[in-house]
Design a protein that fits this description.
single chain; two-stranded antiparallel ribbon; alpha+beta; 14% helix
């Protein structure tokens, strides 16, 4: 929280499951879902939100004028208005990442899957004349997660780890009934004591 206003690129939703006294807490990381049919894209009057050829919902910060239409149109509530003008007095300015632009007050911000890391890995692979290897690059959230609960990879590689996880019958997408076609996939938690549910027919 910055100056009593929520601003986060990933949040951990907590919800409760079961009846007393057998109530269990469940945790769900929620970030920009990078939807294929993103409802935030068509409402931007200055086209600051674009869909990349890699399936990312990218934000062009120097084009954003902070109308907040995208934030109001996002069903996942993952966009935040920047009310804060950052100040980094010396020598604290030396800790800033030179690959990331410092955004000024008045812009909408969200998770971009650390697009600067994606671009760097792509450039290094092209310089070496090869494709980016599966697991070679990770956004900051996946790198920092000690339980390996977040996995990042290439959808186009049928042998990648995320494709194997996506084919698991436990996989689901958030609010998939809305037709936003998110690129983020979740796996249902396995409870060894729960009775096995019959698999639904498609």
């Amino acid at each position: 929280f910055v100056e009593r206003r929520a601003k986060e690129w990933i949040r951990i939703e907590r919800y409760w499951e079961g009846e007393f006294p057998n109530i269990k807490a469940r945790f769900l990381p929620v970030l920009c879902q990078h939807c294929q049919n993103a409802p935030c894209e068509p409402v931007c009057p200055v086209y600051a939100i674009q869909h990349s050829s890699e399936g990312l919902n990218v934000q062009v910060y120097n084009r954003c004028i902070g109308t907040r239409y995208c934030g109001n149109n996002c069903p996942y509530n993952v966009r935040f208005f920047n009310f804060w003008e950052p100040e980094w007095p010396e020598p604290l300015n030396s800790q800033l990442n030179p690959d990331v632009t410092v955004r000024s007050k008045g812009l909408i911000e969200k998770c971009t899957f650390c697009v600067q890391r994606i671009n760097r890995a792509r450039r290094e692979a092209a310089r070496e004349g090869r494709l980016v290897r599966d697991g070679e690059l990770q956004p900051a959230c996946a790198q920092a997660c000690p339980t390996d609960a977040l996995v990042f990879g290439n959808w186009k590689d049928p042998n990648s780890r995320i494709n194997q996880l996506a084919r698991d019958r436990r996989s689901y997408r958030l609010l998939q009934h809305l037709g936003t076609e998110p690129n983020v996939i979740y796996l249902k938690k396995v409870d060894p004591h729960a009775p096995e549910q019959p698999e639904a027919e498609h």
